[in-house]
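User: I'll paste a sequence; please echo it back and then give the predicted structure.

Assistant: Echoing your sequence first, then the prediction.
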Amino acid sequence: MSSEQRFSVTFEPSGLVFEAPARLPLLRSAREAGLILPSSCRNGTCRACMCRLVSGRVSYIVEWPGLSSEEKAEGFILPCVAVPESALVLDDAKVLDLRAGP
């Protein structure tokens, strides 16, 4: 039985953290951990989930995610179609923590 590779994902400036399996898109992993990011299409075209990657590496499950070359150069990613290749730090003030009590 092999253990699944998982990476730590931290949001700045909130400090929220979750573990993301290498095989799942970040949007889905965050949701399973109780963290909600804005989303709509979930296939890399609407850009509702776009956020900036501060550090780490991702790859995409689609051939051409809906980002311009300038956005990619500035570090923007689409979590709906991005999977982690390392520990990540994301700059996103739009995350909603469902784990927090009322």
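The chain is about 10% helix and 30% strand. The mean pLDDT is 90.
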